[in-house]
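Checklist before submission:
- one chain only
- standard amino acids only
- sequence pasted in full

Submission:
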Amino acid sequence: MPCEATLRRTGGSITLSIPKSIAKALTVDAGTVVELAVEGRTLSVTPARRTLADRLAASPKSPAHWHRDASLEDEPMWRELL
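Returned file contents:
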């Protein structure tokens, strides 16, 4: 799925936008941590493999910041009352 993209200057960095079709194929979205590697004149972008410790460090520390599904707040219906 080759395509072209134009690099842009953003502050002191150079930014590369990833086309939606490539982001979808890589299963990445805004905020995804990626690893960059250069081999000769080839740039590789790979979704980073994060450890459990990394994921826990990035998770909310307080239950007040957890994003809970509101549908789980229903009253007990059957034998849950036991």
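Reviewer check: The first strand starts at residue 8 and ends at 10.
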